[in-house]
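Input record (one chain):
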Amino acid sequence: MKKLIHSDPEIIESVIRACSVCFVGMADTDGTPYVLPMSFGYRDGVVYLHSSQEGRSISILERNPRVCITFCTDPQLTFQHPEVACSYSVRSRSVIGWGIVTYEEDPEKKRDALKVLMRQYADQNFHYNDPAVRNVKIWVVPLTEMTCKEFGVQSGR
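The corresponding structure, as predicted from the sequence alone:
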């Protein structure tokens, strides 16, 4: 089995679009890691996330807004020979991106971010009432760097 590295933006975006969850990694100023699975939206190199207004992640990000975000497609077990353990691998594609979190406060831009987020999961328009928009924390993460890898590829490919 081999690993492929992709740099084509269309392939990278297709991996992100195929995912239903991303994992957001952050580090506190003392180096303590913290990783959250989160729902997300993606548009034009920007990841949109949402959360409550406060909590451990918000406290960490106030001190260190740098994050690493990982997306991974559903893994599929693959092998070259069913009786050879070393020939087994997990077939998947992943994207890892890095960026700095800022928060959107403008109500209309928050609504737009929520639309981007919901488009990841449903192909319909939603209405967002004022209290809900006011109470949600919208994270905006322009990805400054991205890598994309595909694992478990048969050697003949």
